[in-house]
Amino acid sequence: MRQQLEQHDHQLLISVAEKYGVLLRHVVPLLLPFVERDEPLTEEEVLRFSALIVSRLAHAREEFQRESLRPFGTRPDAQEILYRIWQVQNDG
Known about the structure:
mainly alpha; globular
């Protein structure tokens, strides 16, 4: 339940940030739970996000899953994937 509320909060923050032009580097970390989880985006999430966010999230999720299948058991860095897809400099 807590995870669902947290993701709902992230959805809301992402939508508001996009509406008001918040710098992307502040928004990208909120997208991490949507990339790292096993479940696909829900219909509600797809409806709440813009087409651009849904497209980039799908791209990030596919890349994260593809990199997860590589040998050596190293977990891919979802945050780096997001920064690369959103073309945002990672200052952290």
